[in-house]
Amino acid sequence: xxxxxxxxxxxxxxxxxxxxxxxxxxxxxxxxxxxxxxxxxxxxxxxxxxxxxxxxxxxxxxxxxxxxxxxxxxxxxxxxxxxxxxxxxxxxxxxxxxxxxxxxxxxxxxxxxxxxxxxxxxxxxxxxxxxxxxxxxxxxxxxxxxxxxxxxxxxxxxxxxxxxxxxxxxxxxxxxxxxxxxxxxxxxxxxxxxxxxxxxxxxxxxxxxxxxxxxxxxxxxxxxxxxxxxxxxxxxxxxxxxxxxxxxxxxxxxxxxxxxxxxxxxxxxxxxxxxxxxxxxxxxxxxxx
Length: 289
Known about the structure:
By secondary structure, this protein is mainly alpha-helical. Helix content is 49%, strand content 11%.
């Protein structure tokens, strides 16, 4: 039996059931009205409880939180552009290791500290890092650490040999960024050097460094910082509010269009009462205007 046939049969059964049910009631009986009203009340009550739910793994953002998200993206994009970065999707950074290699690595993974001090320790004879690959890696780390020192940010960097990620993917140093504050979110960014990825798309071997951001962690931090200020977050970036003491929409459109043409963020309010405009302005002022 097809789907449409089943539906027609269901309707027919329902009609017959209603006919039989009506045999027990007198249409003129006030009790029938009471029953129908009660059924309607139950149905409407159930409908009011059928509220839309947010799908698992997603978040809804209020206008204030959306403002924070947009601000975060703007800062991130501007920093990337300042340093000549471009966006790129990357494949997923797994590889097995033999027991022997894993045991040798285990000698170093507990080491963590000041970049230049730990680098000096790794170059000592006791470390036994004297093979060609290790020497090249240590020399490259020295260049990196000295560059960080010259840029006056080495005090914000910790050399951590326990970081291990993407052995099939990264071809040099890897790094993670963590937030040093009251909000505990773990790593907020991670990346590293990869010299072979661009070749997958262009056919040329181009050295590159990339980073990915845990954007939800960044949002959580920014939201917490805003809450710590005990200040309301502006949901809009309006610079000028045009208050029209009438309902003249055309006048409002003319005035704000001139502001928009001058790249000024503006909106308008139409009301014949001065106090209503003052009240609206007071509310905006409380939000940081």
